[in-house]
Amino acid sequence: MFSGLMLNTWVAATAVAVIAGVTGFFAVLRGSTFAAHAIPNGAFAGAAGASLLGLNPFAGLAVFSVAGALGIAGLSRRARHDVATALTFVMMLAIGALFVSWSTEYAQEAYSLLFGEVFGVSAGEVLPIVVLGGVSIVAIIVMFRPLMLSSAMPEVAEARGVSPRRMDLAFLLVMALATSMTVPVVGALLMFSLMIGPAAAARSLTARPVLAMVLSVVIALITVWTGIAVSYQSNWPLGFFVGALGAVFFLISRAYAALARRRARTPGPAA
What we know:
The chain has helices at 5-29, 33-42, 44-52, 57-75, 81-101, 107-115, 123-142, 144-152, 154-159, 164-180, 183-186, 188-205, 209-234, 238-265. With 271 residues, the protein is mainly alpha-helical.
């Protein structure tokens, strides 16, 4: 389980979990979970187009991820954020469907982009994931304060000279960068599960942003490590275990939060 190609699997999955935990925290905080779903799932159109042209699918995936982020940010100026995300997602899916219809050999690659090939990670795929993941995390650390302020209190941020639109664009670009190299390995659906499930669970456990981000990373790591081990032993798909564990962590965290609120409202015994 810890030798050969499986070692690459553990390293890549660990890097992806850290990336997903950090970016997912802000995706949940900013209400951008739909965008976290749309960008990686719609970007497969770029990989399809690159394959038709005989280019590296990673390049097409990166281009369409960035284009999706720019499209969402641009349309959000004239429409609601969720409507802008939906319109961008629909356009990307339409282009992807057209590219796939022109190719008879892309079905298997499209399947791998949706569900990933985490047990077939090569050594050459690990380094780009780690490097781009590191760049994404560094970018979030650099803009942590203005990003946090624009996420929690956009009116106050704007009064202090922080443009919420610019921060939204910056975060969408970081999310596009984080997903462009991880999707071919873990799949768009698995990346979405890792970004949203652990972050939502962490937000239910604490209101402190730094602690919530750390918890999001820890839960994502536990989820993906447990999923790989159980999937390897049972030969069941990894996506099932990651999605199920994410839901379980979220339900447990919500139950704990509800219990904590109930205890806080219950008066103590009389002196």
